[in-house]
């Protein structure tokens, strides 16, 4: 993946306008843009505009990320019990 910042409008903290990341595959085809704002993340597939993107609240993203991180550990614990 190639990830680049398209427009950096950030001082020390992310403002309401946020930061826009352009995501391209290794063949330089644009996959979409990711906006990181104070309130949420916004995924815009392809050349979709920010207003039409998929909004993900920070709380939802954190819960999703933590659940994914916990899943492999839970599987290992079950596998150890089964092996005994």
Automatic annotation (TrEMBL):
The lineage of its organism: Bacteria, Pseudomonadati, Pseudomonadota, Betaproteobacteria, Burkholderiales. It comes from Hydrogenophaga defluvii. This is Uncharacterized protein.
């Amino acid at each position: 993946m190639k990830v680049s910042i398209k427009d950096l409008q950030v001082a020390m903290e992310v403002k309401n306008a946020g930061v826009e990341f352009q995501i391209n595959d290794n063949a330089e085809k644009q996959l979409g843009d990711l906006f990181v704002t104070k309130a949420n993340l916004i995924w815009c597939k392809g050349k979709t505009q920010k207003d039409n993107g998929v909004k993900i609240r920070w709380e939802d993203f954190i819960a999703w990320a933590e659940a994914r991180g916990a899943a492999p550990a839970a599987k290992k614990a079950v596998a150890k019990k089964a092996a005994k």
